[in-house]
Amino acid sequence: MVALPGHEDLYTLDADLPELANPVMLYSLEGFIDAGAPGALVTEHLLSALEHRTVATFDVDRLIDYRSRRPVMTFVKDHWEGYDPPELALHLVHDQNRTPFLLLTGPEPDHEWERFLAAVLGLVERLDVRISVGFHGIPMAVPHTRPLGLTAHATRPELVSGYKPFLNRVQVPGSAAALLELRLGESGHDAIGFAVHVPHYLAQAPYPAAAVTALEAVIATTGLALPVAPLHERAERADAEITRQVEGSDEIKSLVHALEEQYEAFVGASERDSLLADDSGKLPTAEELAAQFERFLAQQDRRGEDPEV
After folding, report:
1. Under a CB-based contact definition with an 8 Å cutoff, are residues 119 and 108 in contact?
2. Facing residues of 283 across strands?
3. What is the radius of gyration, based on Cα positions, of the chain?
4. Which tens digits make up the pLDDT trace of 48-92?
5. Helix, coil or strand: residue 308
6. In terms of CB atoms within 10 Å, which end of the chain has fewer, N or C?
7. Mean predicted lDDT score pLDDT of the chain
8. Is the pLDDT of residue 40 over 90?
9. Residues near 248 by Cβ (< 8 Å), separated by ≥ 6?
């Protein structure tokens, strides 16, 4: 690995990086909203299922606040045995057709956002990236029994012309991923982001169906040949267990039915309101439903029946 001049050694780039022909760059940074963990699930899935290698690493000592996100260390009997350091890295991955693409993963920087994004932009230009695609989950007041929607946004309207907008204008807390899309657009680069609508009562645990929705959107946008079947199988197992829990409780069934009715009313309205979950009190029973499912998921983790649910 050699330091790339012009970026104050904020990252190092593999000296043996092959020539790439307008690759796609996918990105998912940990630390901001990822309801149902589709961002984490998709990146984990791609790195475990596809051939890849790390081609660039960022200086996490410069970018990460260790006291706010303490790395894991392993203690054995009378000594420290290991340390799991954070890694913010760019991977070169090959899809099922051997087409190379890039995947940026790791914790969202706590410091120096603009310098970090300038460095990423430098990589995008140096590697001639044709489009950058981000993805994550957001909590929504929707039932799990209906198809998952998503909000698409991009640096050019043409990139998301096939998607229906769910919001008009709103101010939200910023994220490095969102700012990356903004800075890419300002520099004339194509970028698109997908926010999967995850039932807010399932937002605290990994929800594989959301990962399927995110990955299918990435495939449709990029044309990459990415494996979806394992995530489908995982989603089917999770959905079957959720259905079993719902059917076993009249209270939960009535709560889900209430969300279904509200969902249909929103979908059928000529002027659709936002389904973003909030604390407005419009759905007082949603908290009850969330509590039921959180207890269920905690029980599943303790029993170890399927830690992936």
Report:
1. no
2. none
3. 21
4. 999 999 999 999 999 999 999 899 999 999 999 999 999 999 999
5. coil
6. N
7. 86
8. yes
9. none
What is the phi/psi pair of residue 211, to 5°?
-65, -40
| Cβ partners under 8 Å of residue 49, min gap 6 | 227, 230
Short-list 92, 122, 103, CA closest to 10: 122
In the chain the domains, ranked by start, together with CATH numbers, are: 2-227 (3.40.50.10900)
E strand or H helix at 84: strand 79-84
CB atoms within 10 A of CB 274: 13
Between 35 and 6, the higher pLDDT residue: 35
The answer to whether 165 and 244 are in contact (CB under 8 A) is no
* Structure tokens given for 194: 């997908």
Reference 181, options 126, 115, 135; nearest CA is 135
The contacts of residue 276 (CB under 8 Å, 6+ apart) are: 138, 139, 140, 141, 167
Count of CB atoms within 10 A of residue 87's CB? 13
CB 266 within 8 A of CB 130: no
> How many Å apart are CA 274 and CA 265, to the nearest integer?
12
Extract the tokens encoding 288.
């009850």
Q: Is the pTM of this model over 0.70?
A: yes
Secondary structure in 3-state letters for 244-303: HHHHCCHHHHHHHHHHHHHHHHHHHCCCCCCCECCCCCCCHHHHHHHHHHHHHHHHHHHH
How many whole angstroms separate alpha carbon 20 and alpha carbon 28? Answer: 21
User: On the CB side of 300, how many CA atoms lie within 13 Å of its CA?
Assistant: 19
SS3 content of the chain, % helix, strand, coil (to 5): 40, 25, 40
- If phi > 0 it is left, if psi is from -120 to 50 it is alpha, else beta; for residue 103 that is beta
Specify the pLDDT at position 37: 96
Contact 231, 212 (CB under 8 A): yes
